[in-house]
Fold this protein.
Amino acid sequence: MKARCSEKPDLVIRNVQVFNTAFRGFYPADVYLLNGRFYYVDIKKEHLIEASETVEGHDRYMIPGLIDIHMHIESSMMTPAVMARRLAECGVTTIVAEPHEMANVNGIRGIQDMIGNGKEAPIDIFYGIPSCVPATRPDLETTGGIIDAASMTELIKDPAVVCVGEVMNYREIIKDNDLEISRFLNELSEKDPRYTVEGHCPALKDEELAKFIYLGIDSDHTEHDIEELKQRFFQGMYVELQEKMLKREVIDFIDKHSLYDHFGFVTDDVMADTLMEKGHLDHVIRLAIGLGMSPEQAIYHATCTNARRMKLTDRGQISPGKLADFSLLTDLRGVVIDATYKNGRCIYRRDEKTASIQGSQLSEKCDTFSKDYFYSVKVPPVKPDRFVLKTDHSDTSQVLAEVMEVSDGSTKTTRSLVWLPVEEGIVRWQHSGCLLTAVFERYGKSGRVGYGLVSGDFMKEGAVATTYAHDHHNLVVVGSNEEDMALAANSVISAQGGICVTKDGVIKAFLPLPIGGILSDLDADEVGKKLKEVRDALIAQGYRHYNPIMSLCTLSLLASPAIKISDFGLIDVTAGEPVPLIREELRL
Amino acid sequence: MKARCSEKPDLVIRNVQVFNTAFRGFYPADVYLLNGRFYYVDIKKEHLIEASETVEGHDRYMIPGLIDIHMHIESSMMTPAVMARRLAECGVTTIVAEPHEMANVNGIRGIQDMIGNGKEAPIDIFYGIPSCVPATRPDLETTGGIIDAASMTELIKDPAVVCVGEVMNYREIIKDNDLEISRFLNELSEKDPRYTVEGHCPALKDEELAKFIYLGIDSDHTEHDIEELKQRFFQGMYVELQEKMLKREVIDFIDKHSLYDHFGFVTDDVMADTLMEKGHLDHVIRLAIGLGMSPEQAIYHATCTNARRMKLTDRGQISPGKLADFSLLTDLRGVVIDATYKNGRCIYRRDEKTASIQGSQLSEKCDTFSKDYFYSVKVPPVKPDRFVLKTDHSDTSQVLAEVMEVSDGSTKTTRSLVWLPVEEGIVRWQHSGCLLTAVFERYGKSGRVGYGLVSGDFMKEGAVATTYAHDHHNLVVVGSNEEDMALAANSVISAQGGICVTKDGVIKAFLPLPIGGILSDLDADEVGKKLKEVRDALIAQGYRHYNPIMSLCTLSLLASPAIKISDFGLIDVTAGEPVPLIREELRL
């Protein structure tokens, strides 16, 4: 129950420079708290009010707890509870997470178990309903779960759910109104016409963009040029800016047109090693400040506007009645978090990091995930001969094969064709500059294996296997030779999930992901460290991409162009259909 | 059901200067509508999109339908349906009304019947739950209904209800947590911690203001000096500016500190004749423009910020997917409304006013109010001797009497004392400069009559009787002689409600208010005309107040200082207790 306002405040933080949202500035003040909420921001200090406890602020900056309204916990490969502890260090006290990765693994139960695990977190975790699971269709990719309209209707009743998560099939939904998500949105527009629906629509413009927004999907967080950005603001979208959108021209455009109340900062995907080395929403704020935005303005867009977008009107500013979520900072421009409070309780102190954060128990991290999550990779041990490509005819001398061409700077691939020699019915891809890719269906459904070839700015030697593979998260194995591929695959299978890099018969780096094959049961820094080792190993083996892990894990993402791979083999993403690996055979 | 976005637009408004919310500016465009919502704002016009119907915009300004989030329909003395028709002429397409007047007359049923009647309106009427009915306590004023915590819990379930209406007992609620509204707010903070709660807290400052906001009440629309205004913004309130707050220093303060996204314009109380002569929220916008605010900025605060405050995120801007609520204007600075559309349908055209607005049927206006609303003044005909003041002792020669002193410019009164002669046990107040006031309990409860005296900037001759009397709405009669008082009272009783001005045995002006004694069954302009006659008659009879109707009807408002009147007689508002009319008797 909310305290009576006639009670004595529980806590006062004296002598801070408090951030004021309406005035977007810092003011010297004493800030009183009562029963987990702010009680009074006293800038007059004419007479001291008695409080049960006093914390000396030492003239530090006091900012509202940061609010990230578009992010995926699974990208950190941590459980919600573990990630939340790390977020407290970054000053983040509220997130709206979209758990479509776990939904691909385990359907509606996957989402419910993410919600359940998040309840043990020291920060508030709200959720968006995943709206595109599977990312495409069951005849193109096998997933562990499917979220249909009925599941969405069920999920929306959970008080932790505050929006429909990013609607990603933006090309289809503006044409085809018989999708599960279309049916659900139609129903929703009747029952709750003001419900928040988040979008994802890279490059969409003009009337097509309007069609998307017309469906009630009025935010976007993908990358744009200035014309696309302008159209989004103009057609009434709330723009969510993540790191890759932070360019000086974007900041200048917003400033020139005073678009301040129509956008906020988000993180989308932050991997464990980035989280360890750079931080989270605090990192995005630092980047914005570096690009010339004032710290005050940057904080506003990581708190006030985001809270408003999600109708979380009980937080996002330091003012009476709002949840007492805040951080104390010595260095404002550097966004160095000294301490973070949630509901008036200190959940992080930099000088006591070991005690408050590292001391978490394994049980807290994954207890809410039942035993079956730890047995989700239903693939028997793999022998090297599973990575032998055979032709239909023994007298074939050459084949023209489809190749996924990877380019640095993008998760999109391009299609290319290559002639490969064939000996005794076996395709000799090994010295062609291509690597073999095999996708093993791992949910115990069809046992299907899809094959493909990859080249370009990809790794050159050894092999890698991963069950963290957007969005279907089957077991993806890529490599230059059968033995290393089998070793990587079997390591992941035996750990029941993970990312393993091998070379010359040796495991070079390995991050086990035993929870649903996509999450670790380790602490944040351990996950960060192991992921960094995986990244370094991939780079050492020749991966030339700016983010090799992202590049590797999206080789299987059928929502992104142009040719990707699933347990059904190569998929032409644009056409939405499978492509035969071997296009032509030259026979003797 | 929301239309599919692949359908042909229903309507296009070609060649308009469309208001864009994010950019706060006008842009030449064609605006497409589909199924009651905006479909596309085309500023490129590279190729025409086919629509079922075309309206030529003639380069007029197209602005979003105005949204008034703090107002009382009963102040217009019209039914919701009738007032809504008038509002369409003013460009207002959404209101959030707070029906505490009708709640005082008929409790929860009064509110439900207001909601029911509003459903026939051409605009959207949402409601705030009245939180202070009665305004004070049942032992200080008799009302027709009481809204307790249980009633509020019931009302909040209605989909038309979007907030808790202004919490007005701001001095008590910060001290006493056992009020009905305190109990309800406590319950609400558990069940729906982000529910919108509107406030009313004139002059409240510093820690006391914080205590009020701490309870979750975070808006205010009362009048303030700059220091009070600053505190409201600083402590996180949404500020609602009405006409009386519109001063150049206020506009300058907002501009200087860029407080644009934290306030909106509202009307609160607009009477029928003002509505006829000056308009509604359009009038407030005109005033703001007159004080130097740009029309673009002024429109923003009568649409976007207000929609956001009430979480009405399906409206308030001209962009895809939002409700197609808008007006077309030739004269932007003058805010001259040529036409208004709601859900894509034209509900008002200035050049066809007679046909579209005046053609309303009586049945639409008041059918939803059942027969008992037309028999709400349960007072038998009054004889002149009811206005004779007697003393307890026949040998009294003079009495010292309490007087409510009315001052121009305010609805507050001050206390004064006057010696009056007594003849044969009868107080001769007639030539003292005071008028007699009698309040007849009219709900068929106690039949109590309270007496008082009034002087100052009040009327001087004749009499007036009204059942429109904030907040208890009993029958209030004030006059200079018994005969005119009886005539006025009996006219109102026989019409079962209204405001009647008499002089020299003649009815000078009369606005019948037969619905619950506070609403007319006439059309907007007729109500306006008759109310104007009442106002003119009061002025002709010596009323010197800038708003004599407001002054008259708040003589009974126990929520406003310092001495007011109810069926219990004179009430010391500050002390919250009755005051004897006769303080002292001088006996022979």
About this structure: The longest helix of chain B spans residues 100-118. The CA atoms of residues 282 and 588 of chain B lie 63 Å apart. Chain B touches chain A through 62 residues (CB under 8 Å). The mean pLDDT of chain B is 95.
